[in-house]
Amino acid sequence: SYELTQPPSVSVSPGQTARITCSGDALPSKYASWYQQRSGQAPVLLIYEDTKRPSGIPERFSGSSSGTMATLTISGAQVEDEADYYCYSTDSSASQRVFGGGTKLTVL
Amino acid sequence: QVQLQESGPGLVKPSGTLSLTCAVSGGSISSSDWWSWVRQPPGKGLEWIGEIYHSGNTNYIPSLKSRITISVDKSKNQFSLELSSMTAADTAVYYCARAVYSSGQCRFDPWGQGILVTVSS
């Protein structure tokens, strides 16, 4: 079965840049999206089609993709950005729709 | 803007059937979007389980295909999830979400607040 692999945790100090990666064999041909889930809350869409940011999402959140890896970058991370982050994509035939295992971001 | 709200029982007996409804407001369920269910076991990650189009076309995760049914009620602007033969492994927060397709890929936006479903006798 298809898998997207994320690091379990990332830690940065306030104001630093946080990078969360998502690795998958089909990412060269399939877009990824990214979601933020604060504790006890529903996920929120941060990035779609690898790099696009929905209206209302702060500019410090950006996405990129190269080869089999998509990356979510948080420039100047803030304490309020502490959350779990998930990537989503599909296999090359779009028959398997999967989320990555999630990355817990700590900002302190 | 579109808002989603799940409703249904928070407790299901083992071997029972889960029935949840997602009410769509601020937009039409007959739009060009799909409508999905995603679940999250306590302390674990997200799992997409299925989606429906207003025409009634569905897609399901293979591991649940024998137990899951997603339906749509256009007159009430809502869609529903039924999951039969429930076990403790199905205990999770169940979210409904709009699946927006563009450039050959979908994104989930927005999401409902989620509903915790516990399987226990």
Task: Give an overview of the whole structure.
The complex is a heterodimer of chains A (108) and B (121). With 108 residues, chain A is mostly beta strands. Chain A has no helices and 9 strands. Chain A starts with 8 loop residues before the first strand and ends with a strand. The relative contact order of chain B is 0.32. In chain B, 0% of the residues lie in helices and 55% in strands. Chain B starts with a strand and ends with a strand. In chain B, strands 2, 4, 5, 6, 9, 10 and 11 form a 7-stranded mixed sheet that branches. In chain B, strands 1-3-8-7 form a 4-stranded antiparallel sheet, with no helix packed on it. Chain B has no helices and 11 strands. By secondary structure, chain B is an all-beta fold. The radius of gyration of chain B is 14 Å and the shape is globular.
Looking at this protein, list some descriptive labels.
heterodimer; A: mainly beta; six-stranded mixed beta sheet; globular; B: four-stranded antiparallel beta sheet
- Measured as a percent range, the helix fraction of chain B is under 10%
**Total strands of chain A:** 9
Task: State the major sheet of chain B.
Answer: 7 strands, mixed
Poorly predicted runs of chain B: none
- Count of alpha/pi helices of chain A: 0
Can you lay out the helices and strands and say which pair or pack?
The complex is a heterodimer of chains A (108) and B (121).
Chain A: E1 9-12, E2 18-23, E3 33-37, E4 44-47, E5 61-66, E6 69-74, E7 83-90, E8 97-99, E9 103-107
Chain B: E1 3-7, E2 11-12, E3 18-25, E4 34-40, E5 47-52, E6 58-60, E7 68-73, E8 78-83, E9 92-102, E10 105-111, E11 115-119
Parallel strand pairs in B: 2-11
Antiparallel strand pairs in B: 1-3, 3-8, 4-5, 4-9, 5-6, 7-8, 9-10, 9-11
